[in-house]
Amino acid sequence: MIKLRTYLLWFAMTAVHTYLFYSNATGVNALVFSLLSVAVITWYHGLLNEKFWLLAATGHLIIATGTAWHATFSDIAAYNISFIVLAGFVFSVRSSLWVAFMNGLTGSFLFSFLQAIISGIKLIHEMFLKPQRSLFLIKKMPLYVAPVSVTLIFYMLYGASNPDFFLKITFPAWEFNFELIAYIGFSAIIICPLFFSWGIEKLTDWDIKQPDMLSRIRVKRHAGTPMGLYYENKQAVVMFIMLNALIVIFLVFNILQIFLPALNHSAADFSEQVHQGLEALVVSLIVAILLIMYYFRANQNFYVRKERLVKLASLWIALNGMLILFTCYKNLLYIDAFGLTYKRIWVFIGMLLSGIGLYLTLLKIYRIRTNWYLLRQNAWVLYFVISCYGMINWDRLITWYNPNYANHLDMQYIMSLGNSQLPYLNELLAANDPRIMPYEKQIREKIGSVKVSSKWQERTWDGIWLEKQLAIK
């Protein structure tokens, strides 16, 4: 049964969340609340030795640090999502990341809150309304009533002898604040899954039972069943021979395009080629991984003549890796010419995720892992890449890199970024850089519009740095 201290912790964390976030923008309050929440939940649920919980909590604290640093929209979105992941691991600490997120999501939609209300009613009934409990409380009352009553009598006597000893208690005028009450309710609901966990039990049980290691399934083959391992292996060998040949031709053609401009007949410009190429490459990599997952499932991994298929699949993974490197090279050429943008940064992130996905697929083949293992590992990779993404101020990086290294400076794009890049623009103005002088008025207005919050909850490390650099008072 849920204990009284669970409700006390829930109420306390709700009060802390309300104090930190009510009428405040997101800033350092996110990191303060996360540190306190992770410490309390780890202690209360005894999760200090649980590997998945520690991984999820570490990723969440990295995101919280990035939020306290920059507090961009993507930081705040990742911060809220990671709290949902934590709630899922509170329900089942051994589940996969995908399943934990689904459990946290379902628990956050009032299910945990309803469970807390129902359990609270049962707790009140257990403590106060059961006959044996009521009798116990009645018997206990004389133990406290007499000492408290005598103490109050003596307090009044002492107060009569010295009027200044009396406490003067005045209650401030209070008006009903519906907005505050609503926010307290909201805080209680979103924090509730951390103490009153709720999830999809059947899905969680099924997920936990899924092994990472493949085991051979021995079944009798009957007439009319799908083609056996021999024919499936032959089909996969033929397919990967064709796919390897195709990707080699594609790579050679792409390389020749660099040295022979006459081969470039597409009407799309360099930018469109890079981004369209990324989209097509990501889709092809996903399809490649799905093909390997299909052909290296179950007993195909234990087929005695699988060596040729393993080599062809490994070659296919290596060639896809070369395609990733070539795409990164084209993106570097594009950045060298036109500078950094968010899309060009996302190309590198997409290639990083794709490369790690291919490496994990190679491990699956050689270490005979299940498909669910591959999904589990890729989920953790995605989680930590998102966590680390928020640690970098991309606006500032772009504004530092483009004026110094790009052959063509797109000031319209730079002006569309956030305020954290203003000190760099101010330095360029001081140096009378002719490329930004036409935007001097806009930059000055943008600097003048920067406001520094007086609330410590809303402060960010970027804001403190910006305040010092621009000498804002």
The structural domain count equals 3
Class from helix and strand fractions: mainly alpha
- Tally of helical segments: 18
Output the helix-strand order.
HHHHHHHHHHHHHHHHHH
The major sheet is characterized as: none
Shape: flat
Number of strands: 0
* Strand percentage: under 5%
Rg: 31 Å
Write down the overall mean pLDDT: 83
N- and C-termini, Cα separation: 55 Å
* Uncertain stretches: 222-226
Instruction: Give the fraction of residues assigned to helices.
Output: over 70%
Which SSEs are present, and which pair or pack?
Layout: H1 4-21, H2 28-45, H3 51-69, H4 73-91, H5 97-129, H6 131-161, H7 178-191, H8 201-209, H9 229-259, H10 270-295, H11 307-338, H12 342-367, H13 371-389, H14 394-405, H15 411-415, H16 422-430, H17 440-448, H18 461-470
Describe the fold and architecture.
The protein is an all-alpha fold. It folds into 3 domains: 4-145 and 178-205, no CATH class; 229-369, no CATH class; 394-470, no CATH class. It contains 18 helices and no strands. α1 packs across α7, α5 packs across α6 (131-161) and α10 (270-295) packs antiparallel against α11 (307-338). The longest helix has 33 residues, at 97-129. The protein is flat and about 105 Å long. Mean pLDDT is 83; it is low at 222-226.
What would a concise description of this structure say?
The protein is mostly helical. 72% of the residues lie in helices and 0% in strands. The protein has 3 domains: 170 residues, no CATH class; 141 residues, no CATH class; 77 residues, no CATH class.
